[in-house]
Amino acid sequence: MSATAASNRLIGDMPKIGIRPTIDGRRGGIRESLEAITMNLANQVAQLLSEKLTHSNGLPVQCVLADTCIGGVAEAAQTAAKFERAGVGLTITVTPSWCYPMETIDTNPSIPKAIWGFNGTERPGAVYLAAANSAHNQKGLPVFSIYGSDVQDIEDSSIPADVEEKLLRFAKAGLAVATMRGKSYLSLGSVSMGIAGCIADESFFHSYLGMRNEYVDMTEFVRRMDLGIYDRHEFERALQWTKENCKEGADVNPEHLRRTSEEKKNDWETVVKMTLIARDLMIGNPILDRMGYGEEALGHNAIAAGFQGQRQWTDHYPNGDFMEAILTSSFDWNGIREVYIMSTENDTLNAVTMLFGHLLTGSAQIFADVRTFWSSDAVKRVTGKELTGMAHNGIIHLINSGPATLDGTGRQSKGGQPAMKPFWEITADEVQACLDATTWCPAVDFFRGGGFSTDFQTLGGMPVTMARINLIQGLGPVLQIAEGYTVDIPEDIHHVLDQRTNPTWPTTWFVPSLTGEGVFKDVYSVMNAWGSNHCALSYGHIGDDLITLASMLRIPVNMHNVAEERIFRPSAWKAFGTAGLEGADYRACHLLGPLYK
C-alpha cells in the first residue's frame, strides 16, 4: 500500500502566505541602502515557510512576495491587489528598518497578519514594529508581533530560532483559518439523542469560521443504496479489502440478540456502501456523473461532516461506526491518504475541534467520550491492583462506540515511539499494524440495526492534546485544552475497567500534564472541568498552536496547561491585561468580536 498523491479534494485553491517587505521610503540614499537587505530578508522568510510547512492534504505551502519593497501607500495597495489575485490567506510583514506605519501596514480586516521587526540598531526595525503594532491596535486590526531576543547586524539575514518558532506557529494557524474559509460543514441527519453539540449553530460557523452549513437527511443513504448511486467497482474492491483486513471480534450480545451469519454478511456490505456514500456526499465523485447522476456527483464541498446515526438510523440499519472509523483514518482500500473529518452523532463542535487539530498537524484525530475518571484508590478497590508510573495520579478513560480513527491504535512510530503521523509519512507496514491491532465487534444490543464497532487499546507513551469547543449562551464559543500523554496500564487492570463499560469499543487511557494549580492541580479536576461528553485528541503537544489559532478566530480559551512562554497571541491582547492572561483573552475576544462580522 502506497500513499496517494497529495491533492486538494475540495473546491478552491489552497491559501498562500503573502510576504510583505516594508522599507523606509525616503529616497536619496536611505531606501536605496535598504532595498537588497529588506528583500533578502523577505526571501529568507518565504524559503523557511515553504521548506518547513505542508498543507494538511500534503501539498506544499506557497509564498507570494510583493513585487517591490513597500515604502508607502501606493506600494501597499499594489501588494494587496497582487495578494488578492494570488489567493493569499495570511500575511507576514518583514523589515530591518524604520518605515511609515500607517502607510505600509496590511489593512485587510479578515486575514491574519504578523510583523517581524528585525532586532537591530542600525535602522531599527523594532521601532517600526512597535509603531505598527500601535497603528494596528488603534484601527482594531489584531497583529502578531515577532521580535527576536538577540540583536542582529543589519547584514545578517539569518532567522533566529525564537523568530522561526513564532513565524511557523503563526503561519500554521493562519493557514488553518484560511483553509476553512468558504468550505462547508455537512450534517448527515440532525440531533443525536438530545446532544446539544449536534445543533449546527450557523452563526458560529459563519461568523467565527467563515464556513457554510449543509444538511442532508439520513434517508439519502437509503436512496443511494437502493438505487446503486455509488461506484459499483469501488464497492467490490472496498468490500474485498474489508474482508481481508477487518477481522471480526467477539460478539458480546446474549444469544437471542445475536445476528445470523447472513445478517452480518449483509451488514458488512451495508457499512461499506455507507462509507462510499458519506465520502461522496462530502466531496463529490465524478464517477456518479458518468452514471447519470450529475447533481450527486458534485458533493457539498465539506471539509468536515457528522453522522447522526442514533437512534432513527441505528434502530433499523447498521450503525455508522465502520464509516466513521475508516473515513477518519489515514488509509482505506484506495491506499494511504488524507483523513476525512467525520464526527459521530453529528457532534458539530467536536468535528470543528477535530478539524482544528488536523489542519494544524496533518494527522488523524481521535474522537472519544470523556467517559470516566479512575483514581488510584478506585482502581485498587475494583481490581486489587495499584496504578503506577505516569498513571499513578489517576487516569481518564477516553472511549466511544467506534468512530475513533485506526491511527489511534498508536501503531505508527516516530523515533521508535508510538505516534499518529501525517499520511505522507505513514508506511504500508504501519497501516497493516493499525489494522492488525483492531477488531470489529458486532454492535451491542442498543444498536438494534446491527453493525460493527472498532475495538483496540491505544499504546501508551504518545504526547497528545485533548481539546473541545463549547458554545455558551451570551458568551459564544470557548476552547478547552489539556496536554498530556496516553498511558499503558496492566492488561488485567484494563480488562476489569473495560468490562465495566463496553469491551467492544476502543480505549485510550489519558493522563493530563499537571501544573499543581487551578483545574490542573490533579487529574480529577481536569475531568470535572471538562465542558462536554466528547473530546478530540491530537498527536503532539499542540496547545500553543491551538491557542494561537483560537486568538485569530477570537475564541477565548477557558482552560489549558500550556506554559506562558509558549503562548503567542496578537500584541493587542497585552493591552487587556498582562497579569491575568486568561481574563485578557476573554476581554480581547469579546471586544473585537468574531473574525467574520
Automatic annotation (TrEMBL):
Question: Where in the cell does this protein reside?
Answer: Cytoplasm
Instruction: Say if the entry is tagged with keyword Cytoplasm.
Output: yes
Task: Cite the L-fucose isomerase C-terminal domain residue spans from the record.
Answer: 398-560
What's in the keyword line of the UniProt record?
Answer: Carbohydrate metabolism, Cytoplasm, Fucose metabolism, Isomerase, Manganese, Metal-binding
Q: Which domain of life is it from?
A: Bacteria
Cofactor requirement: Mn(2+)
Q: What is its main location?
A: cytoplasm
Please give the catalytic activity noted in the UniProt record: L-fucose = L-fuculose
The cellular component terms of Gene Ontology attached to this UniProt record, alphabetical and capped at eight, are: cytoplasm
Q: Which GO terms of type biological process are on file?
A: D-arabinose catabolic process; L-fucose catabolic process
Q: What is its EC number?
A: 5.3.1.25
What positions does UniProt annotate as the active site of this protein?
Answer: E345 (proton acceptor), D369 (proton acceptor)
- Which residue ranges does the record assign to the L-fucose isomerase N-terminal-1 domain? 14-182
One Pfam family, please name it: Fucose_iso_N1
Q: Does the keyword Ribosomal protein apply?
A: no
Q: Where is the L-fucose isomerase N-terminal-2 domain?
A: 183-362
Question: What molecular function terms (GO) are annotated for this protein?
Answer: arabinose isomerase activity; L-fucose isomerase activity; manganese ion binding
UniProt enzyme class: isomerase
Binding-site list for Mn(2+): E345, D369, H534
The protein's annotated pathway: Carbohydrate degradation; L-fucose degradation; L-lactaldehyde and glycerone phosphate from L-fucose: step 1/3
The task this protein performs is described as: Converts the aldose L-fucose into the corresponding ketose L-fuculose.
Name the HAMAP family on file.
Fucose_iso (MF_01254)
Family of the protein in this entry: Belongs to the L-fucose isomerase family.
> What is this protein's record name?
L-fucose isomerase
